[in-house]
Amino acid sequence: MYKEEIEKYKDKDVIAVYPMGNWGGIEILDIEHGIEDYAIARYNYDNVPEKPHRNIIRTNSKGRAFFVLDGRRIYLDECMKTTT
Description:
Shape: globular
Number of helices: 1
Strand content: over 45%
Structural class: mainly beta
Number of strands: 9
Order of helices and strands: HEEEEEEEEE
Number of domains: 1
Distance between the termini: 25 Å
Helix content: under 10%
């Protein structure tokens, strides 16, 4: 992502979380719709968020939507939606 895009998502509210332990997980900041859909996600451990990444949303043979972050499949139906 470009520096301007990273600044855009710096203070954006989280829309969903994929927990990966007691101290953190993966935060989904936005879903970009277009020809290909993208999930904007970042790691956050112990309230130290990393820079966001743009990941293509794909589907498996059973129709489950997922994106890949650092070699790990994150299924959207396993993420918990947050309220704002």
